[in-house]
Write a structure and sequence with these properties.
The protein is of the alpha/beta class and 478 residues long. It is 40% helix and 19% strand. Strands 3-4-5-2-1-6-7-11-12 form a nine-stranded mixed sheet. InterPro entries: Glyco_trans_1, GS/SS, Starch_synth_cat_dom.
């Protein structure tokens, strides 16, 4: 079976968040179950060296925003179809924003071009390769199912995966014509969303199936609290909605052979995590003699992630004998709050504002627990990495966090299946209560190591999820 992926980012080539990790890992996992994937991806400036190595397989003179061509190249085990459209994508800055952090004014044209290019090649294919299913990811690719349906002829079925429903892609009605969208579809049962053209909403209306990245999040987004205004649309398509849990690349995230660690280890050599903790202490200026738990944060520093609540709980972590290591970037106010905490508790709080892949691995390898107090979390990947590394997740009860972490309640501890700590109240008091539970459990080294080993046994790879996607594709293709 052939599947055409459509996405705005793909690790390791271009990444701003977890979407890229999924789009980068899923095609390789699907290959193990007999699915041949090709991935349509914008040719941002950083990908131009790959464009130079590839072969042109299609060209378009009239995409929204300008002409473009698809260049096929295989890299890192993924067959890429790079949309080389200089007017849309050859520019400095991030994939979605300029050098000042503002959204590109023509993002509607840029990502409509991506979706339209994918749809156009879906009918006739590329040589002897033709997709059975087109799989679009998030709002940037969500018009692909729309363009497929708009063509009005038999073609491949479509899947839209919602990675985060908070990001929707809304533009004024005036863009209909310039994007080549049907004006008679601008209504509540089509593309119209509160007077605007809704990219994500349109994809949700016209895709054959809708998935999201965890079973719990699939249920949550049917409610007004989590649906971000689209819960009514999802209720109308509820029979086509399902949740398939994300996985991680366990070749990259493997403490037994992770070269970024100061010391590799497995479930039988957990004491070697101490060497990594010492390396973290040296890197961030923490007191290496502290015998309390080392908590870490590897995250965007945003309100969604609940890190305002954590910032208020930092003094409590220190008062309970713990330490905190923070890696991330985000809202200026939260960046300042964690910098201030590091300045106040110099030997117990360390902060690195920015992102450093090697440091992310080291924090997973040397910390005792990872804090993820998200107010909503479609899936989350850092808790999966933490499980793999025996770094116990402390998570809010939402989305994929609830689906992947087994709370250390009395029954789970007795059955030796607990893998972390789950709490419901995302507030300073709620985070403090969760920290108290962690500190109490950490004092019992036997129970703590039992939890670490249970966490490291938990499947976090793509095997089960890839088979679930393969089954979904098979149903559609039939």
């Amino acid at each position: 079976m052939n599947v055409l992926m459509v996405a705005s980012e793909c690790a390791p080539f271009v990444k701003t968040g977890g979407l890229a990790d999924v789009v980068g890992a899923l095609p390789q996992a699907l290959a193990q179950v007999g699915i041949d994937c090709r991935t349509v991806l914008p040719a941002y400036p950083s990908l131009q060296p790959l464009v130079a190595k590839g072969k042109e397989v299609a060209s378009f003179g009239d995409l929204p925003g300008g002409a473009g061509r698809l260049v096929q190249v295989k890299a890192k085990g993924i067959t890429l179809l790079l949309l080389d459209a200089p007017r849309q994508f050859d520019r400095p800055g991030q994939p979605y924003t300029d050098q000042n952090g503002a959204d590109w004014a023509d993002n509607h044209q840029r990502f409509a071009a991506l979706a339209q290019a994918a749809a156009r090649i879906s009918f006739d294919g590329l040589g002897d390769w033709r997709p059975d299913v087109v799989h679009a990811h998030d709002w940037q690719a969500a018009l692909a199912p729309v363009y497929l349906k708009q063509e009005g002829r038999a073609g491949p079925k479509s899947v839209l995966t919602i990675h985060n429903i908070a990001f929707q892609g809304r533009y004024g009605a005036h863009v209909l014509n310039e994007l080549g969208l049907r004006a008679d579809w601008f209504n509540p049962d089509g593309l119209e969303y509160y007077g605007d053209v809704g990219f994500l909403k349109g994809g949700m209306m016209f895709a054959d199936r809708i998935t999201t990245v965890s079973p719990t999040y699939a249920r949550e987004i049917l409610t007004p609290h989590f649906g971000m205004g689209l819960d009514g649309v999802l209720h109308a398509r509820a029979n086509s909605l399902s949740g398939i849990l994300n996985g991680i690349d366990t070749n990259i995230w493997n403490p037994a052979d992770d070269t970024t660690l100061a010391a590799t280890y497995d479930s039988r050599s957990l004491r070697r995590k101490d060497t990594n903790r010492k390396e973290i202490s040296e890197h961030l200026g923490l007191d290496p003699k502290c015998d309390g738990p080392l908590f870490c944060v590897i995250s965007r520093l945003t309100h969604q992630k609940g890190l305002d609540a954590l910032a208020g709980a930092v003094p409590h972590i220190v008062a309970r004998g713990g330490q905190l290591a923070v890696l991330g970037t985000g809202e200026p106010g939260l960046e300042d709050a964690f910098r201030e905490a590091a300045g106040t508790f110099t030997s117990n709080v360390g902060v690195h504002i920015g992102f450093d892949e090697g440091l992310a691995h080291l924090l997973q390898g040397g910390s005792d627990a990872i804090l993820i107090p998200s107010r909503f979390e479609p899936c989350g990947l850092t808790q999966l990495c933490a499980l793999r590394y025996g770094t116990l997740p402390v998570v809010a009860r939402t989305g994929g966090l609830a689906d992947t972490v087994i709370d250390a309640n009395a029954a789970a501890l007795a059955a030796k299946c607990a893998t972390g700590f789950v709490f419901g109240d995302v507030s300073v008091a709620g985070v403090q209560a969760a920290i108290d539970r962690v500190v109490s459990c950490y004092s019992n080294k036997t129970a703590w190591q039992s939890m670490q080993r249970a966490a490291m046994r938990q499947p976090v790879d793509w095997e089960q999820s890839a088979q679930a996607y393969a089954n979904l594709y098979g149903e559609l293709a039939e």
